[in-house]
Amino acid sequence: MENVTAMLGPKRLIKKHEFVRIIIQCLNSLGYKNSASCLESESGISHKSPESKLLEMQVLNANWEDSIGILNGIEDLTDETRASALFLVLQQCLLECLSRGDDSSALAILRKRVSPLKVGREKVHNLAAGMLSLKEMGMGKIDDSSICELRRKSLVELEKLLPPPITLPERRLEHLVETAITAQMDSCIYHNSFREISLYEDHYCGRDQIPTQTVQILTEHKHEVWFIQFSHNGEYLASSSRDCAAIIWKVLENGVLILRHMLQSHQNPVSFVAWSPDDTMLLTCGNGEVLKLWDVETGTCKHTFGDHGFIVSSCAWFPDSKRIVCGSSDPEKGIYMWDCDGNEIKAWKGMRMPKVSDLAVTPDGENLISIFSDKEIRILNVGTNAEHVISEDYSITSLSVSRDSKFLIVNLNSEEIHMWDVAGKWEKPLKYTGHKQNKYVIRSCFGGFHCTFIASGSENSLVYIWNRGNSTPLEVLSGHLMTVNCVSWNPRRHQMLASASDDHTIRIWGPSQPRNITTT
Amino acid sequence: MMDVDPRQYENVAINDSDIHNIVLSYLVHNCFKETVESFISCTGMKQPADYQEDMEKRKRIFHFALEGNALKAIELTEQLANDLLEKNKDLHFDLLSLHFVKLVCSRKCTEALEFAQTKLTPFGKVQNYVEKLEDFMTLLAYEEPEKSPMFRLLSLEYRQQVADSLNRALLAHANLPSCSAMERLIQQTTVVRQCLNQELSKDPPPPFSLKDFLKS
Question: For chain B, what is the domain count?
Answer without folding.
Answer: 2
